[in-house]
């Protein structure tokens, strides 16, 4: 049986901070697009959201998915524990299942108006960079955690698999939101196995048909297999407009406004 390393939260935090700093530095030297708005205001809001999300998770979820996975494993709960799927088969299957669930969850958050109210805060960022990969409303984070915890219980996914998935999800979310220029010859092949910044940037287009595409965070296969893949934005990566039509003023997108967005009565977009 694959063993869970000690201090999983320390591992997650260390990798998160290290990769965040590395990508932020890379963006300075190899930017893909010129930034449209001042970074200091955006980063102040986005980092405030990171801190708030962490506090909400700590307060509302004394039992996190990794702890729940350990409890399920100890009590033989869930499909994998009942049919004794362990080791590498469980690790690979568990990672794929969790990744597919996050993909489907993302599509639902675009499709269902109530869920879109929670998710649209993420799409109000007028530029994309590494900080955008952490810009999710606390209510969306809480609901996503509940979905993952349900999956852990149903399938009996091991603690190590859950830890690896969380690390991969955080890392790929920061990477595919990064304002990072990758040579097109490399991007063409890399996006066959990983969601690249150019691939995910299409998802943040102001054009609804483009917003409703490229939903994956980690593996690119789900978009290709399930018909939601879009290769390039209509206006090109340097010419495309990022964000939503109804939120175009960065001066009005500070930290407190971001928290209020799910409760505002702005027109609800129709998912395609």
UniProtKB/TrEMBL annotation:
Keywords: Membrane, Transmembrane, Transmembrane helix. One of its GO terms (molecular function) is oxidoreductase activity. Residues 92-228 form the Fatty acid hydroxylase domain. The chain crosses the membrane at residues 12-31, 43-61, 81-104, 145-169. One of its GO terms (biological process) is lipid biosynthetic process. One of its GO terms (cellular component) is membrane. It is found in: Membrane. Its main location: membrane. PANTHER family: STEROL DESATURASE (PTHR11863). This is Sterol desaturase/sphingolipid hydroxylase, fatty acid hydroxylase superfamily.
């Amino acid at each position: 049986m694959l063993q869970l390393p000690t201090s999983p939260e320390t591992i997650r935090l260390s990798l998160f901070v290290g990769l965040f700093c590395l990508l932020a530095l890379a963006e300075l030297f190899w930017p893909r697009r010129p930034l449209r708005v001042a970074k200091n205001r955006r980063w102040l809001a986005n980092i405030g959201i990171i801190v708030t999300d962490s506090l909400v998770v700590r307060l509302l979820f004394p039992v996190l998915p990794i702890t729940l996975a350990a409890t399920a494993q100890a009590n033989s709960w869930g499909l994998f524990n009942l049919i004794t799927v362990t080791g590498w088969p469980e690790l690979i299957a568990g990672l794929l299942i969790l990744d597919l669930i996050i993909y489907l969850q993302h599509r639902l958050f675009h499709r269902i108006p109530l869920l879109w109210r929670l998710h649209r805060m993420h799409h109000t960022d007028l530029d994309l960079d590494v900080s955008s990969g952490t810009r999710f409303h606390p209510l969306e984070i809480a609901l996503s955690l509940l979905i993952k915890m349900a999956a852990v219980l149903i399938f009996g996914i091991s603690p190590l698999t859950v830890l690896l998935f969380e690390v991969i999800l955080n890392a790929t979310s920061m990477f595919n939101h990064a304002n990072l220029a990758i040579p097109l010859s490399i991007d063409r092949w890399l996006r066959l196995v990983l969601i690249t910044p150019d691939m995910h940037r299409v998802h943040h287009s102001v054009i609804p048909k483009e917003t409703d595409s490229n939903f994956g965070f980690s593996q690119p296969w789900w978009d290709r297999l399930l018909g939601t893949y879009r290769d390039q934005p209509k206006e090109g990566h340097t010419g495309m407009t990022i964000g939503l039509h109804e939120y175009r003023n960065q001066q009005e997108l500070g930290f407190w406004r971001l928290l209020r967005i799910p409760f505002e009565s702005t027109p609800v977009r129709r998912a395609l």
